[in-house]
Amino acid sequence: MTKIRHFVLLLAALALTTAVRAQNLLGDLNHNGNIDVNDITLLIDDYLSGGSEEIPYTIDNSLIAGRWYQSADEYLTFYEDGTSDIFEGARYLFYVVDDYGILLVSLSGIPMYIFQVPEFSDNRLVIMNAATGDGFELAKAIIELSEQELTLTEGDQVQLTANVVPEDAGKVYWKSNTPGVARVSSDGLVTAVSEGTATITAEVAGIQATCNVMVIKKSFNNGHEFVDMGLSVKWATMNVGANAPEDYGDYFAWGETTPKSRYAWDTYKWCNGDYKQLTKYNDRDNRGTVDNKSTLDLSDDAAYANWGSTWRMPTYTDWEELVNQCTWKRTTQNGVSGYKVIASNGSSIFLPAANLINYSTPDPRGLGFYWSNSLDSTTSYNGAIVLFSSTDASLDSFYRYVGIPVRPVCP
Length: 411
Known about the structure:
Layout: E1 7-11, H1 18-21, E2 40-45, E3 52-54, E4 58-59, E5 66-69, E6 75-78, E7 91-97, E8 100-107, E9 110-120, E10 124-129, E11 135-139, E12 142-145, E13 149-153, E14 157-159, E15 162-165, E16 173-176, E17 182-184, E18 189-192, E19 196-204, E20 207-216, E21 219-221, E22 224-227, E23 234-236, H2 302-307, H3 316-325, E24 327-333, E25 336-342, E26 348-352, E27 357-358, E28 361-362, E29 368-375, E30 382-388, E31 393-399, E32 409-410
Parallel strand pairs: 13-20
Antiparallel strand pairs: 1-2, 2-3, 4-7, 5-6, 7-8, 8-9, 9-10, 10-11, 12-15, 14-18, 16-19, 17-18, 19-20, 21-22, 22-23, 23-32, 24-25, 25-26, 27-28, 29-30, 30-31
């Protein structure tokens, strides 16, 4: 870190004590608001010894002239003529002592502020309050990445995007510090190569932004990949019938194991035409055959029937655990909207916003629906689901006959 020096501007002929110099900024100022630089002496104050010495300086406003950003929405502009867009009616002078800067601001000939500038370059400016030592950093451009942290499995690809302000700041250059773990293309496409950690850096006009990437080994059960999220079950990385994590996959009525073209009560396997004549999974006398089953048999479980081994559909409790113990972040993956669900151990899965199908028509609301293997506890003609909107995820239920995707779990 650059050591902070204590500077004071004084009249050449004016003798002041060290204590006064630490609190006052005085100088001969002419009446048009400009500082008469010929009548100012720059001293460096040594608080340890109590002494000070006169030092040479130059004045060059061009060194900090231009627009400087603190964030994409916050910026200030210094003009070479001494005006700016933050000190209304005031003028500034930029003093340079060796490689150190001092910013003096005056209004109508009266000094208002003095700032130390320990760092200044074509791309970076650090301004500090001379009295308090508080400060802030500015840059000629701001670059922000769509992701700051990624947890990927080997072979995964994620597109990073860079928000650059101003837009004409220049070309964005991408690089990985460990391409053997995660490599990045010239347009920000990250590919997970092997287990380990890597840092992806995007740079524009000398300003950088980074994304930390953790790559984990792929784990499989009967040929299907899963992620250990530190929960009571392992979660599959994609839906039944999907070829990628962002694919919706196949749609199933609750308790059915094959997709179909039309989802309605009159095509539902476990009823005789409507919800009042259920033939399985029912605990209500007025809803058909009562068997008091509240969890799907494995033979009626779409995950087990299609993937085998120890795969099954999540229980209501499994979904509840995923909703309450993980962070749900609305995002897109390869152009598909959904949620990235992030566990406390850093691992994650992506759940695309797969709409349900009612009869033959997908739901148009852009919501996400996923079956559990649990019957709704209050209404036997509904199955328990997880439902997510653009703002949050929650546990709910829906008619058993509709088509909804399945995300399997295993022990």
